[in-house]
Specification:
Elements: H1 3-13, E1 20-29, E2 41-42, E3 44-57, E4 62-67, E5 72-77, H2 87-101, E6 109-115, H3 125-141, H4 148-162, H5 170-177, E7 182-187, E8 193-197, E9 203-213, H6 217-238, H7 252-257, H8 264-288, H9 292-309, H10 315-326, E10 331-335, E11 340-348, H11 349-367, E12 372-376, E13 383-384
Parallel strand pairs: 4-6
Antiparallel strand pairs: 1-3, 1-13, 2-7, 3-6, 4-5, 7-8, 9-11, 9-12, 10-11
Helix pairs in contact: 2-3, 2-4, 3-4, 3-5, 4-5, 6-8, 8-9, 10-11
């Protein structure tokens, strides 16, 4: 995203004056799926695609906002109890309210924003938008600067309270805390996190978007969450002396001890979750050692688990994964909740052109449409540009 692009629109729509420019990225998650609500680990990183905004206080109590991509303009009062109806403006209204709750004395401002996060690809454009404005409002109006965690939680609360999305914290966390050349292992239970080096020389990180989204996603998500809760209930009954709040607190011996107390389906779901916990920790060791072959192996194992144990894949995603394996791609897996969306692939440079051509050709032959390809690079999180 070019500063000049955003600035030219801001100047055009707001009296020829300039303001401050801020940016926040979208994110990928290398490994660690369906672990957040099980108290486990996720492994995200900020990417080189995101949201950029220009913003200038206007001396009033009104927010005047222009979405460059949608060519839509909205105005609302800072103290308006209901806020705007436009769905994109609800995110902006929500972050204003949540930052106010955290002690930032937000005043009226003019703003324009644009993004290059591909919509529908699972890269969290909404979290990038929330994080961009949380950072900007804190910088402009925060006499007592709030913490980065406050910004993360303000973004999550915006989703919950104003947009009707009961999301976790990974997306906003990655957008705010991202660092160039680093991935982050986030403990979803304690919120502790650690940076790990991600400098895969000789490899490229590429998303292959299946351009499908099956309607099973929301009900299937609830079913799988219930399966995990069923196993936790069995573990609590079996081990009353232990504190078992989520599957994070179980080990393999404990899980095997209750296999006759739970359904075969519930057992499969729990097997995936415990396996994913182990895989995330193995990837930590591999990254510290610069061992990207092991990272790739664990990505394939995660895809297998998501497909066969957690059963959140679909025919199209499995086919993309099969092509990657056949072409010798180092690592490939579903990224996100499943039932559509992207695979994330770790591809050797010398295989890249062949893989991209092959996956486009074979996928189009089978499904009548080409997948979308997004190269991503790990970059910094929320920041002021100028």
């Amino acid at each position: 995203m070019e500063i000049d692009y955003v600035r030219s629109r801001f100047v055009k729509h707001f009296d020829g004056q300039t303001g401050n420019v801020y940016a926040s990225p979208g994110r990928i998650n290398l490994i660690g799926e369906h672990t957040d609500y099980n108290g486990g680990f996720v492994f995200p990183g900020a990417i080189d695609k995101g949201i950029m905004c220009e913003i200038r206080p206007n001396g009033t109590n009104k927010v005047m906002a222009y979405s460059i991509d949608l060519k839509d303009r909205v105005e609302f009062d800072i103290d308006d109890e209901k806020g705007p109806k436009a769905s994109w403006a609800r995110y902006l209204y929500g972050i204003v309210q949540e930052m106010k709750k955290r002690g930032v004395d937000v005043k009226g401002f003019n703003t324009a924003f644009a993004g290059d996060v591909p919509l529908g690809a699972g890269l969290s454009s909404s979290a990038a938008l929330e994080s961009c404005y949380a950072y900007a409002l804190n910088d402009l109006f925060g006499e007592n600067k709030v913490s980065k965690w406050d910004m993360v939680l303000a973004g999550q609360a915006t989703e919950h309270n104003y947009c009707g999305v009961n999301c976790g914290i990974m997306d906003q966390f990655a957008s705010v805390f991202g660092m160039e050349g680093k991935l982050m292992r986030l403990d979803c239970r304690s919120r502790e996190f650690e940076y790990f080096p991600f400098d895969p020389k000789g490899y490229r990180l590429v998303l292959v978007d299946s351009v499908v989204k099956h309607e099973l996603a929301s009900s299937a998500y609830n079913d799988r969450r219930k399966s995990c809760e069923n196993v936790v209930a069995a573990l609590q009954k079996k081990y009353p002396e232990k504190t078992i709040e989520t599957l994070r607190d179980a080990d393999w011996d404990m899980l095997n001890a209750v296999k006759d107390e739970v359904s075969e389906e519930d057992m499969k779901r729990a097997t995936f979750v415990l396996g994913e916990k182990d895989r995330v920790l193995a990837v930590c060791d591999a990254l510290n050692a610069g061992d990207y072959e092991t990272v790739g192996k664990k990505m394939y194992e995660t895809h297998h688990g998501l497909s066969k144990e957690y059963e959140v894949s679909c025919e199209e995603l499995d086919y993309l994964n099969d092509i990657a394996r056949e072409d010798g791609v180092t690592g490939s897996r579903i990224m996100g909740g499943g039932f559509g969306g992207c695979t994330i692939n770790l591809v050797k440079e010398d295989l890249y052109d062949h893989f991209i051509a092959d996956v486009k050709k074979k996928y189009a032959e089978r499904y009548g449409k080409e997948p979308k390809i997004y190269d991503v690079v790990i970059k910094d999180g929320s920041r002021k540009i100028c």
